[in-house]
Amino acid sequence: MSTDPLSIGLSGLEAYSTEIDVSANNVANVGTAGFQGQSVEFENLFAGAKARIVANTAAGGLDPTGIGTNVAISGAGFFVLQGPQGSPIYTRAGNFIPSGNGLLVDAASGLPVTNVNGGSIAIPAGATNVSIGADGTVSATLPNGQPATLGRVALAAFQNPGGLLHTGGGYQASADSGNVLTGAPGTAGYGSLVPGFLESSNVDLADEFVKMIAGQAAFAANAKTVRTGDEMLKTVIDMDET
Predict the structure, then answer these.
(1) Under 8 Å CB-to-CB from 238, ≥6 apart: which residues?
(2) Phi, psi for residue 73 in degrees, rounded to 5
(3) pTM
(4) Which helix (H) or strand (E) holds 157?
(5) Residues 209-233: pLDDT tens digits?
(6) Residue 204 CB: number of other CB atoms within 10 A?
(7) 3-state secondary structure 11-68
């Protein structure tokens, strides 16, 4: 990386712009169930700022809902949703509902919830009292009044959850997140479920506002560096032309 003031200033503008955008996104999702905030780490500060986005994998608080198909994860796992073109989407938000097409789905995205065998969880027409237990078992009462077990929700675990990539509806695996392992809630390494609760966002609103203020100040300082470097370069060019 070049060490001239103009290049250093431009790299700083880009890096601190990233930090401001990340903090703004965190603030926007402070009320989103299961949302895990991101932060920015800076590298190569001598030759210019280089930003790297990392996820905050700390668990959020638990908010009671009393809804049988709402579940929070107690542990480090992720729910698995069946994304477009078969690409799994991982989420901490257990806001699930029976859909009109007879599947258990994520309420926000409409994506089907994956069971421990890798398939969908079908909800029979007319079924009532649909609920999810602490071990992920999905139960319901059939139209004839008989109780039924409909499947078991799967959880995924990663070697490095901080390496997951944010998507619109959750996360996708990456080379940094490592291999994904899937299993059942309540088994070693996957955590268990808390029925009738949703995990709240882990974003600290006060901390994010502090980061935004500091990022804006750093952005302004680097903008000044760029203007100064530009003026110096213009002066040199003017001297060459005389």
Answers:
(1) none
(2) -95, 125
(3) 0.77
(4) strand 155-158
(5) 888 888 888 778 777 766 666 565 6
(6) 15
(7) HHHHHHHHHHHHHHHHHHCCCCCCCCCEEEEEECCCCCCEEEEEECCCCCCEEECCCC
